[in-house]
Design brief:
Layout lengths: L12 E4 L2 E6 L4 E4 L2 H16 L7 E9 L2 E10 L5 E7 L8 H14 L3 E5 L4 E7 L4 E5 L5 H4 L4
Parallel strand pairs: 6-7
Antiparallel strand pairs: 1-2, 2-3, 4-5, 5-6, 7-8, 8-9
């Protein structure tokens, strides 16, 4: 798999019936090792190990219903009250981050209304902070630490 613009780690990769699998610690199971999954596992490792996101507040492949259709958010980060704080959308490294990726995550956010959106292909990462009061958004220079998105009361 391709080297990413994320801290390296040693994922648990296995082969079963000639197919590569990678262990997802959040789902607690082996999943198909695709290029997008490679990005997801590196990104969640980065969030947990380098940005102090508690694993119990992160969920992968979260189903939502949008306009009567079933959709899946790649990753959702929650606060201590289990309210969504952030949606993360992953693309394979070979896929450029385009307006369509942002449109996709924006559609998911119509349902969840989170303050943070991230799109990453493992090489390039974009993080947006949404302000619902002023109906504006700002791109952040770096991914915030968990304490920045959920300050201690």
């Amino acid at each position: 798999m391709q080297t990413l613009n994320l801290p390296s780690f040693t994922p648990k990769v296995s082969v079963k019936d000639g197919k590569y699998k990678i262990y997802d610690p959040l789902r607690r199971k082996n999943v198909a090792l695709t290029s997008e999954e490679w990005v997801r596992q590196h990104f969640i490792h980065y969030l947990m190990e380098y940005k102090s996101y508690p694993p119990e507040r992160i969920a992968n492949e979260v189903g939502i219903t949008l306009n009567g259709l079933s959709k899946r958010c790649d990753t959702i980060v929650y606060n201590r009250f289990i309210d969504p704080l952030m949606i993360v959308e992953y693309k394979a490294p070979s896929i450029a981050i385009t307006e369509e990726a942002f449109n996709q995550i924006a559609r998911y956010n119509m349902k969840l209304k989170v303050p943070y959106l991230i799109v990453s292909n493992g090489l390039v990462h974009y993080c947006c902070r949404l302000n619902y009061d002023s109906l504006s958004f700002a791109y952040l220079k770096e991914i915030p630490d968990y304490q920045q998105i959920e300050p201690i009361l």
